[in-house]
Amino acid sequence: MAAPTAGSSTNLTLCVAGFNAHNQLFPNQPKDSHTFIPLTLPSQPHPQTLRLLFSGWASTAFVADSTLHVIGWQRIAHTLDPNLAKGLHSGQGDHQAFYGCLSADGNPYTTGPNAPEILRQGNEDSPKLGFWAVAGNGSLAVTFKQAPDGKLAHVLQFSSQQEFWTWFRDPSAFKLDAEKQHFMLPGRPLQLLAGTGTFTLLMEGGEVYTWGDPRYRSLAREIADAPAERPTLVDALGGLKIVKIAAGGWVGAAVSEDGAGYIWGTGSPGGGDEKAIEPLRGDGDVMLVELEDEGEVLDVIDIGVGEGYLLVVVEGGRLFGVGANRNGQVGLGDGSPEFVEDWTEIPSGLGFRHVVCGPKASFVFRDSESIP
Fold it and tell me: RCC repeat boundaries (predicted)?
């Protein structure tokens, strides 16, 4: 599963916490970090820009200036054309390795466990892709890259990567199932993310669509009138201008333009209430993130979803976390509980701006001057 591409410049620093058994956060230091520590790439310690492309169980991919770095079980340091580097997005991978991303002009670039670089796939006649996402069950969804004035989104779904690449290499010879594989939606895609068995699509107009495995309230909608396998609007978010989505495991999340955060699904499928995230225990499909200070509700700026845990950035640059913390991914420090039942503020100062969660590791962008 991919992490949403997020980046920093000279006034922001990327800090990381969590699972590091494969050196995917800190090379040559296979210990987990229970606090947020600034990331340093040994081969490029002071890049002007640093963007996260992918976070997996064993490998992490970044773009530092014009170099692709993959650290952990997989190791790559590949210098790219600057124009290509700054447009890479939608990184994908599996438990072990990063295997590809998309360029700004819609071309897929892929690598392999032992490949020292990423290579463009297809040719000038190949389909141009806007976004792609791979779910934990192996299914894959893509959107076509639209013309600047395009107002109709084409969404395709495949049961596996093998099926996707068969289509991509020769679309004219592949018969798509119009009912189950090819969907047309009004608007322009802004984000496409995957969880364990679901997909979530955010449109530029703020609409949110979900489809896939409907267990654990993971679609945030009823499926009686709209089949689970078809992209369908989340009615509970209707009328809201959603500006960002996040997904991980069986949990989805959204942030609205007016600073409200919403979550749905479950952080512990089959695990019982003793391992359930308190904010997800409600009866509704979509729940509001309610964080207060002296009776005042705090606006949500950003939200990240990992495997069984969540992090939220709120107004004032404060950071709160909840859920699984065995590897320190919530960032509460040494001695903190392995499971954080309810929202808890991370006691490491202010200046948080953005957050992205991988399966067991967290990435936060902070004001550089706020870091001790």
Answer: 206-258, 317-368
Cβ atoms within 10 Å, residue 33: 23
DSSP-based three-state secondary structure for 235? helix
User: What is the three-class DSSP state of 207?
Assistant: coil
The token pair that represents 17 in the structure block: 């916490």
Beta bridge partners of 120: 109
Residue 49 scores a pLDDT above 60: yes
pLDDT band per the 50, 70, 90 thresholds, residue 283: low
- pLDDT over 80 at 120, yes or no: yes
Q: For residue 287, what are its two tokens?
A: 């729940």
**CA–CA gap between residue 342 and residue 279 (Å, rounded):** 7
Kind of pairing, strands 140-144 and 98-102? Answer: unpaired
pLDDT at 172 over 80: yes
CA–CA separation, 209 vs 193, rounded Å?
11
Domain ranges of the chain: 6-370
According to DSSP, the residues that pair with 97 across neighbouring strands are none
For residue 86, how many other CB atoms are within 10 A of its CB? 16
Least trusted range by pLDDT, from 5-9, 279-283, 353-357: 5-9
Give CA–CA dist 91/120, Å, rounded: 14
List % helix, strand, coil for the chain (3-state, nearest 5): 10, 45, 50
Q: Is 331 left (phi over 0), alpha (psi -120 to 50) or beta?
A: left
Q: Is the Cα dihedral 17, 21, 25, 27 positive or negative? A: positive
Distance in angstroms (rounded) separating the CA atoms of residues 260 and 289? 7
Tokens coding 267: 């952080």
Closest CA to 102 of 54, 160, 48, 60: 54
Q: In terms of CATH architecture, what is 6-370?
A: 7 Propeller (2.130)
Torsion over CA: 151, 203, 297, 303 (sign):
negative
Containing H/E element for 14?
strand 12-18
What sign does the CA torsion over 258, 260, 261, 265 have? negative
pLDDT band at 273 (very low <50, low <70, confident <90, very high): very low
5-18 burial, b for 16+ CB within 10 Å, e for fewer?
Answer: bbbbeeebbbbbbb
